[in-house]
Structure formats: structure tokens, C-alpha cells
């Protein structure tokens, strides 16, 4: 039931004041007047909360002058408790009577029937700052549907928890998928509102878009600087600092390297069967990657493909997230594994190319290229994207 997913207002003083005013708070305090009686549908999940941790849906329901017609849930479901790739069903919430339409079930974009009676779509979901995390694809599909069915779409902006650093390959159109729709860098350094502006203007969506900007936010902030409380964005991103390592290990599993999912610290490990943990850690630490130390580690996942298998490798200890180059670290891990434990690399070519949005990582890895050569291979496109993104930024 939706009631289980949404929270009640918290008493004054129960949480410290945040340093950032979220887009949903600006909407709830001010911008909702611009609806002028039009009805909304809300694309959200458990992360769509105010700084007081009140659900955007509950907050809207408390205002009798806002007409709300439907709720739409992305991958992992409205509560965020479904595993990656799991089918999410639609249903009607018993408490509110609202339909809860799945955008990760029979369809991944709102259709005409799902938008009946809705004039304005509101998007309020916390992203993690990585192109492969599918919430921004859900946002793009919703924007496309808004354009097709002549609705407005308002993005209630939220912080990029891993800041404004830009890293990694820019997606090549041939590898477009729900994992990555548009040619942006792997670590894009943008908020969802800024991405929406980019998608709409540069990639031809053409929706009637309105971004409700935050106040007090700037791109040098990592999540702790915002003063906001973290709500897990999916089962394997339980804490904000998991998001910082996600671009490092989230997409190495298609190369045969376990990334800690199914264990106690998802995305904070890298290894496989029979890896010499001490040698792998030593090899990676000798690379002098900023902000990170690699500890020899041993673990046995309790779920997933690697369930009950005794794995060895490294634990990622990020001691300076401001300087930590996550995507570079992914390349360094794969190259170190190629050297130390070549038997561990079992590359699924189609999946690795799709996830990374290019075949250049795989081809250069297989050819024996150095980490620097792999990184330099996409530096020109990364710089081009970084120049492009500046035209769509809303914050310093």
C-alpha cells in the first residue's frame, strides 16, 4: 500500500535544518500556485521527500487546493525495495484511492490512459549522478510522454550527491538503451533538473518543461554538505557514500568482477574466485589513485549469482571523496585484474558495451591497453560534453 511508503509530517525540531531548499519544498511553498487549478500526476518513490522527510505525495494531499490524480513509480518500485531489473506492478492505493502506475513493468513510459485527467507531471526522485542509473531514463521517457500527450512536466530539482565532477565515456548512439539514453558522460556532474534542460533542448524532446530549482545548492557540494538526510535510492545504495563508489564498481560485474552486491557493503568490493587479494591491493595502491586506498578483503555473498561463493579481492576505502576519480578507478580495477587474475575476467561483451555506452573499454582492455590509454581514448568526447553541459547548469 502507498500508505506504507509515505511518511507523516515530522514534528518541528526533530531534524537539523538543511543547508539546501529542495525543489519540492519550493513547489510546496510557492510554485504550486502556478498550477491555477490544474491537476498533477507525481513520478516519485521513497526518495521523493522534503528535508523533513515528508513524502511529496503526502504533502500535496495536505493541500486541498492541489488536485492530484495519480502516482507513477520507477525501477525498484514506489518503496525502493525491488531489486534491480525486477518487474514492478501497478495497483490502486487503498488509503488515498490514487492509482499507482508502474514505469518499470508493462511499460516504461506513461501512456494516454495513465495520464487521463493529468495536466502537469511532477518528477521528484533522487538520482545518484551516474548515467547508468535508470531514474534519469524514466525522467526522459516521462518528458517524451508529456510532449506526446500535450502535458507540462515540472522537475522538482534535487542535489547530485557526488558533486560536479565529470568523468568517463560519453554514450555512443549505437549503444542507446534504458541504461543510457543520451550521449552524456558516465559521471555527468549534473542535477536531474539540469539534465532535463539538456535532454529537452539538445536531444530534441521538446516538452513544455519547468524546472523548480533548489536554493542554496552549488556543484562543489557533496551530499553531507547539503545537510539533507539520505534515503536509500535502491536496495544496493543504502547510504550516500555508496553513490560515490557506484561509478567505480557498478558496471564491472559484466566483466566478471563481483562488486560486493549481495554482501554487506554493496559496490565497495571488487574481486572474484581465487584472486590474490594482497597482490591486487598492492597493484592498485601503487597506481596512486587520488582519495582511495585498497584493502585486501574476503567475502561471501548471501544472494545473487555469487551466493555462497568465497571471493577475494579488495575493499574500496574512499578517504577523500572530493578528489576520488570513480570512473578512472573502474578502469584501474579492470586493468589490475587483467594483470593479477586474468582468469577472473569473464567479459559479457554485449552487456559491458551496453552498460558503458561504448565498446572502447572492452576492446582496449582486451588488447592490453594501459589505464591511461583507455582513459585518454574518450577524453576528447568527455571534454566536449563538459563544455556542452555548462549551457544547461542552474547552479554555480
Q: Which regions are unreliable across 5 or more consecutive residues at pLDDT < 50? A: 1-8
Kindly report how far apart the N and C termini lie.
Answer: 40 Å
Task: Report the structural category.
Answer: alpha/beta
Helix proportion: 25-40%
What is the CATH domain class of the largest domain?
A: Alpha Beta
The count of DSSP E runs of length 2 or more, i.e. the number of strands, is 12
The share of residues in extended strands comes to 15-25%
CATH topology of the largest domain: Rossmann fold
Biggest sheet descriptor? 7 strands, mixed
Q: Tally the helices: what do you get?
A: 13
Any idea what the CATH superfamily of the largest domain is called? Answer: Uncharacterised protein PF07075, DUF1343
Widest sheet: strand order?
3-4-2-1-5-6-9
Total domain units: 2
**CATH architecture label name of the largest domain:** 3-Layer(aba) Sandwich
How would you state the average pLDDT, rounded?
A: 93
SSE diagram, text form:
Layout: H1 2-5, H2 23-29, E1 39-44, H3 56-61, E2 67-73, E3 91-92, E4 99-102, E5 120-124, H4 135-148, E6 152-156, E7 167-170, E8 185-187, H5 192-202, E9 208-212, H6 223-226, H7 240-249, E10 269-272, H8 277-285, E11 292-299, E12 311-318, H9 326-340, H10 349-356, H11 360-367, H12 371-377, H13 379-389
Parallel strand pairs: 1-2, 1-5, 2-4, 5-6, 6-9
Antiparallel strand pairs: 3-4, 7-8, 10-12, 11-12
Helix pairs in contact: 4-5, 7-9, 8-9, 11-12
Amino acid at each position: 500500500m502507498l500508505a506504507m511508503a509515505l511518511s507523516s509530517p515530522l514534528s518541528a525540531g526533530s531534524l537539523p535544518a538543511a543547508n539546501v531548499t529542495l525543489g519540492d519544498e519550493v513547489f510546496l511553498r510557492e510554485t504550486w500556485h502556478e498550477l491555477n487549478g490544474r491537476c498533477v500526476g507525481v513520478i516519485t518513490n521513497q526518495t521523493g521527500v522534503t528535508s523533513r522527510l515528508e513524502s511529496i505525495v503526502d504533502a500535496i494531499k495536505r493541500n486541498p487546493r492541489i488536485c492530484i490524480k495519480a502516482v507513477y513509480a520507477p525501477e525498484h518500485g514506489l518503496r525502493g525495495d525491488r531489486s534491480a531489473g525486477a518487474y514492478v506492478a501497478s495497483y490502486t492505493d487503498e488509503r488515498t484511492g490514487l492509482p499507482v502506475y508502474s514505469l518499470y513493468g508493462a511499460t516504461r513510459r506513461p501512456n494516454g490512459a495513465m495520464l487521463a485527467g493529468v495536466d502537469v507531471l511532477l518528477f521528484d526522485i533522487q538520482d545518484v549522478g551516474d548515467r547508468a542509473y535508470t531514474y534519469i531514463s524514466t525522467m526522459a521517457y516521462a518528458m517524451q510522454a508529456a510532449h506526446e500527450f500535450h502535458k507540462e512536466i515540472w522537475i522538482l530539482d534535487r542535489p547530485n550527491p557526488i558533486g560536479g565532477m565529470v568523468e568517463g565515456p560519453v554514450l555512443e548512439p549505437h549503444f542507446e538503451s534504458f541504461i543510457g539514453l543520451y550521449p552524456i558522460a558516465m559521471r555527468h556532474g549534473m542535477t536531474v533538473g539540469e539534465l532535463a534542460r539538456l535532454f529537452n533542448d539538445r536531444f530534441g524532446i521538446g516538452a513544455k518543461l519547468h524546472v523548480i530549482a533548489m536554493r542554496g545548492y552549488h556543484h562543489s557540494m557533496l551530499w553531507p554538505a547539503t545537510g539533507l538526510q539520505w534515503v536509500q535510492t535502491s536496495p544496493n545504495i543504502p547510504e550516500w557514500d555508496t553513490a560515490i563508489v557506484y561509478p567505480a564498481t557498478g558496471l564491472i560485474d559484466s566483466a566478471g568482477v563481483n562488486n560486493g552486491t549481495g554482501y554487506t557493503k554493496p559496490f565497495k568490493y571488487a574481486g572474484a574466485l581465487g584472486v590474490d587479494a594482497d597482490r591486487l591491493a598492492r597493484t592498485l595502491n601503487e597506481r596512486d589513485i587520488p582519495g582511495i586506498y585498497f584493502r585486501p578483503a574476503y567475502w561471501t555473498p548471501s544472494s545473487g549469482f555469487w551466493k555462497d561463493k568465497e571471493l577475494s579481492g579488495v575493499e574500496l576505502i574512499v578517504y577523500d571523496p572530493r578528489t576520488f576519480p570513480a570512473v578512472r578507478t573502474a578502469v584501474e580495477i579492470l586493468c589490475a585484474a587483467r594483470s593479477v587474475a586474468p582468469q577472473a575476467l569473464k567479459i559479457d561483451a554485449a552487456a559491458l558495451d551496453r552498460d558503458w555506452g561504448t565498446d572502447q573499454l572492452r576492446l582496449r582492455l582486451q588488447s592490453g591497453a594501459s589505464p591511461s590509454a583507455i582513459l585518454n581514448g574518450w577524453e576528447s568526447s568527455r571534454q566536449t560534453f563538459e563544455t556542452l553541459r555548462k549551457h544547461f547548469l542552474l547552479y554555480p
